[in-house]
Specification:
The complex is a heterodimer of chains A (181) and B (804). Chain A is of the alpha/beta class. Chain A has seven helices and eight strands. Chain B contains 27 helices and 25 strands. Chain B has an eight-stranded mixed barrel with strand order 17-18-20-21-22-23-24-25, surrounded by four helices. The chains are: A alpha/beta (181), B alpha/beta (804).
């Protein structure tokens, strides 16, 4: 059952290849949450006392079309910490976030602009827009030819004190070592 | 194993050494190889684990994000290890995501993990879970071949085999060389033992080469040899001792082996059995036995051989020349310490001389050495047999008891040699007068018996007795002298008189005494009266005992008168027995019996005591003159009683009379019985002042030679001579002569039995001193004597007065 589902998904992905840039295929957005969740697992989150309730705040903007899907990973655990999905207004305070997801429609200028604050607050920035990583986003992911493509800005991660699992870095198609280009 | 046991020590040692080393090496090699294999696999697994874990760890992201290219790259890195055959990565659905095959494997990674045929595959396989955040997101499967391990194992095995073979060869060579260390000393020891056996020399000792167990064995062996040597030498000296002893032994010694063959005899044995040089043979020896002794000895020998029971026996051997010798044979069985039979040992002694002496002694036991007649023992045997036989047959047997008359006198007067010669001659004459079947025996000094068998009637016996009397009455010519000896014979018959041997002997004895009583030199047949007489005597004896106790005796006194002047010179005491039933019993009726039983001593002492006592009283009263005497008769028994003098002296003291007031009368025959002894006794009595009188003179056998030696004061002429005065001129002549002779010998004479005046006158005329008799006075009781004495005194006074 699951196998056929996967096949279906792949097929659909192939068919909607052309819409990769501008529009997200509705299936892709469904899997964004999953990717986010999985990517979160490749971050070495700091060791917190598990007795204390210390959720991982995953922030996403209101305008994110995948917000409904994001609920899927609400309260799911990563390294013993519950993910709490939090929706932000565009210009709202994001310092309490652990992970800030920037959907495709958000310009890369955001991350550039708020780079210091983001670094200071040790926020893992994950985006899907092209050039996200190049512009200071820590992890950029997208589907290319139905395969996940990951780009990592190593410097940004370093600045934000975010430790990324080596295995993820290994599968990254690009790894940037400068803060911003 | 049996095969091994049959091999030499050398071979065994080599086999053991080689087998041991081979086994050890095999074991070691096998273990080593197994370990090799095991550790090889261990290492492979470890390596595989490491590889797998690393790849799994590295593939988390690639698997999560389905980066197949990355996954493949990861799997490719496994190529570095040549043992990896294939690797497969499955997702959490166990669906194959990536795989890599190193070789053209027939079986590539299956799409579904479940279909992986594990455990059946020839590969070493492992599964590695790929985990992300403690969750399994996939599985890595790696399969390796163990070809490298196997190939290395093979190499090592080959090497090991080469080493093993080399080691076995080396072990073989070394063992072959080194076994000598053990076998050489053993061979040496064996050689030494063989030497000892061959040379029979126990002084040889084994060489100790080393101070190990074999050296210790040599030491122990030498110790054993020393022990054997010393025992051997003591055995040898023991054997030597035995040989010496047996060769010198006065007894024949023989030794027989368990099989019954004579293996040794000494010189003496040869001499006894007269076998000088031949081989002694047991069967041949048995063949020489007297037929009567053969069977008993064979029985004993059989028991010795089968039950090992010691045996001894006296047997006769018959020599080739027919002579018989007596031997005493003893034999015993010999056993080892463990009880095994070693043989038999025995001795043979020549006892022919001993036997001869034995027979002689037996003869002595049954025959009188002097006369050669049967002795008492043999006689008793024959009598007992004869008595028994008489009960079976219908004949009678006569037993004759013969007692020589006056033999003692002959022996004393003529000497023992003549006495013996007399006995021999008597024996010869007796033997001559009886038949073959009759037995003449000498049962005592001068006592003989004759057993007449097969007698029909008493007349036959009478004839024989008469013949004997006649034969013996002929003088015996001995040592140039003619000797007369007569015999008194008592005869009894069986079964007529008795069928008990003891009773028969008693009967014959009684009859013989009767013959003596009737004057000797005659024979008397036993009759019941004699028995009666015996019973009567026994009764008297019993009553006498009672009489002594109850004082039933009374004394009578017969005055002795001086014939010249009719004065009393004394009294003779006569004892009477006042029997409570029978009245007064005269002395003749009980004195002889008392004499025989010895009761006379007590009676005599009583008589003596009372006589002296009463005499003492009479003298003190003045009724009897101070020099008067009380005469008491002594019997033979009293005379020979050793306490006589003491008794007499005690009585004299008690009754307060002087010894010269006592006169002891002893008959001539008593004195003549043993003259020398009598003279001594008389002299002893006389020395105390007591007077002695010889009674019944003329009736004994004294000679004048003796008479002059008798220390006596008074001679009493027997009544038999006085009785026939004046009729018998001879008696008168004798009496007259006796009186004269006595006076010449300074003896007083008393005549007994004066009953007539003529007798008295005659005696007076012949100067007889004193007289006794019914004419003068009969025996008086004490009161009567009193009266008599008083009257006599008065008469004397009257006479004296009238003479004046």
């Amino acid at each position: 059952m699951k196998v056929s589902l996967l096949r279906t998904w792949i097929l659909c992905s192939l068919i909607s290849a052309t819409n990769a840039e501008a529009n997200e295929h509705p299936d892709e957005s469904a899997f964004t949450a999953t990717y986010l969740y999985q990517l979160a697992k490749f971050i070495n989150w700091p060791n917190i006392d598990p007795m204390q309730h210390n959720p991982l705040y995953l922030c996403a903007f209101d305008s994110d079309p995948a917000n409904d899907d994001l609920q899927k990973i609400h309260l799911r655990q990563v390294q013993g910490r519950e993910i709490k999905v939090h929706y932000l207004k565009e210009h709202a305070e994001f310092s309490t976030c652990d992970i800030l997801f920037l959907h495709r429609k958000i310009s890369n200028a955001f991350v550039k602009k708020h780079y210091d604050s983001l670094s200071k607050n040790k926020i893992l920035t994950i985006g899907k827009r092209d050039g996200f990583a190049n512009h200071g986003g820590i992890i950029q992911f997208s589907l290319k030819e139905n395969l996940l493509d990951v780009e990592i800005n190593f410097q940004a991660a370093k600045d934000a004190n975010i430790q990324i699992n080596a295995n993820l870095i290994e599968i990254a198609s690009k790894v940037y070592y400068q803060r911003q280009s | 194993m049996k095969l091994l046991q049959t091999q030499t020590v050398r071979t065994k040692l080599v086999i053991i050494a080689v087998t041991t080393s081979t086994l050890i090496l095999l074991l070691t090699t096998a273990a080593f190889l197994s370990l090799e294999l095991y550790f090889g696999h261990q290492d492979l697994n470890k390596k595989l684990t490491v590889l797998g874990q690393v790849i799994a760890e590295r593939s988390t992201a690639a698997l999560t994000f389905r980066d197949e290219r990355q996954l493949k790259t990861n799997l490719l890195s496994l190529e570095a290890d040549s043992s990896v055959v294939k690797s497969c990565i499955y997702d959490e659905e166990k669906v194959l995501i990536a795989s890599h095959l190193m070789t053209q494997d027939r079986q590539s990674c299956p799409q579904m993990m479940a279909t992986l045929k594990t455990n059946e595959s020839p590969y070493v396989e492992q599964y590695f879970p790929i985990k992300l955040d403690n969750q399994i997101i996939g599985t890595l499967y790696i399969a390796c071949h163990d070809n490298d391990i196997i190939s290395r194992f093979k190499q090592v095995s080959l090497f090991a085999i080469i080493i093993l073979i080399s080691a076995v060869i080396i072990a073989l060579l070394l063992a072959t060389k080194l076994q000598r260390i053990v076998t050489s000393p053993l061979r040496l020891l064996a050689t030494t033992i063989r030497n000892i056996i061959q040379r029979n020399d126990f002084s040889i000792r084994a060489n100790k080469q080393h101070d190990d167990e074999l050296g210790h064995l040599a030491d122990i062996f030498n110790e054993l040899l020393s022990k054997i040597e010393s025992e051997h030498s003591s055995l040898k000296s023991s054997e030597e001792k035995f040989r010496k002893l047996t060769s010198l032994s006065p007894v024949g010694i023989f030794q027989i082996n368990p099989e019954g063959e004579i293996i040794y005899v000494n010189q003496r044995w040869r001499e006894i059995n007269n076998i000088k040089h031949q081989e002694p043979n047991l069967q041949a020896w048995f063949a020489n036995l007297h037929p009567d002794d053969s069977l008993p000895l064979n029985k004993l020998w059989h028991r010795l051989v089968t039950e090992h029971e010691d045996m001894s026996s006296e047997v006769r051997l018959i020599a080739k020349n027919g002579s018989i010798s007596w031997v005493y044979i003893q034999a015993t069985s010999l056993h080892s310490k463990e009880g095994k039979l070693l043989g038999f040992l025995g001795s043979v002694s020549d006892i022919s001389e001993l036997k001869k002496a034995q027979i002689q002694m037996e003869n002595l036991a049954f025959y009188d050495p002097l006369t050669g007649l049967a002795n008492r023992r043999l006689f008793k045997n024959r009598l007992a047999k004869a008595v028994k036989s008489v009960q079976r047959t219908n004949t009678s047997i006569a037993l004759l008891f013969l007692d020589l008359d006056q033999f003692k006198r002959v022996n004393d007067t003529l000497g023992h040699d003549i006495g013996d010669a007399l006995l021999k001659e008597i024996a010869r004459r007796l033997d001559h007068n009886v038949r073959e079947n009759d037995t003449v025996s000498r049962i005592g000094g001068d006592e003989f018996t004759i057993l007449l068998t097969d007698v029909n009637n008493t007349n036959d016996v009478r004839i024989v007795a008469q013949k004997i009397l006649q034969s013996l009455s002929r003088p015996f010519m001995l040592n140039g002298q003619d000797i007369i000896s007569t015999v008194s014979i008592g005869i009894t018959m069986t079964p007529e008189d008795s069928i008990d041997p003891n009773t028969l002997m008693k009967n014959a004895d009684l009859a013989m005494y009767r013959a003596k009583e009737l004057g000797r030199n005659n024979f008397q047949f036993f009759s019941e009266d004699m028995n009666t007489a015996i019973l009567h005597n026994l009764e008297i004896e019993k009553e006498l005992n009672s009489a002594i106790k109850r004082n039933q005796f009374i004394l009578m006194y017969q005055p002795k008168i001086r014939i010249a002047d009719n004065t009393i010179t004394g009294v003779e005491t006569l004892v009477r027995w006042r029997h409570p039933e029978k009245g007064i019993i005269p002395p003749d009726n009980f004195i002889p019996i008392a004499e025989e039983t010895g009761q006379i001593i007590k009676i005599g002492a009583w008589v003596l005591e009372h006589s002296c006592h009463e005499m003492g009283a009479l003298i003190r009263e003045g009724l009897m003159p101070e020099d008067s005497k009380v005469a008491v008769n002594l019997s033979a028994k009293q005379f020979s009683d050793p306490d006589l003098l003491k008794t007499v002296l005690d009585i004299l003291v008690q009754s307060k009379i002087d010894p010269l007031n006592l006169e002891l009368e002893i008959t001539e025959s008593i004195i003549m019985d043993d003259v020398e002894a009598a003279i001594q006794i008389m002299e002893t009595i006389k020395s105390k002042g007591i007077h002695l009188a010889i009674d019944d003179f003329g009736t004994g056998y004294s000679s004048l030679a003796y008479l002059k030696r008798f220390p006596i004061d008074v001679l009493k002429v027997d009544r038999s001579f006085v009785k026939d005065i004046p009729e018998d001129k001879t008696d008168m002549a004798i009496t007259s002569a006796v009186i004269a002779m006595a006076h010449k010998l300074s003896m007083r004479v008393v005549a007994e039995g004066i009953e007539t005046q003529e007798q008295l006158d005659f005696l007076r005329d012949n100067n007889c001193d004193d007289g006794q008799g019914y004419l003068l006075s009969r025996p008086l009781t004490l009161p009567q004597l009193h009266h008599f004495l008083v009257s006599n005194q008065k008469a004397t006074v009257k006479r004296t007065l009238s003479e004046q």
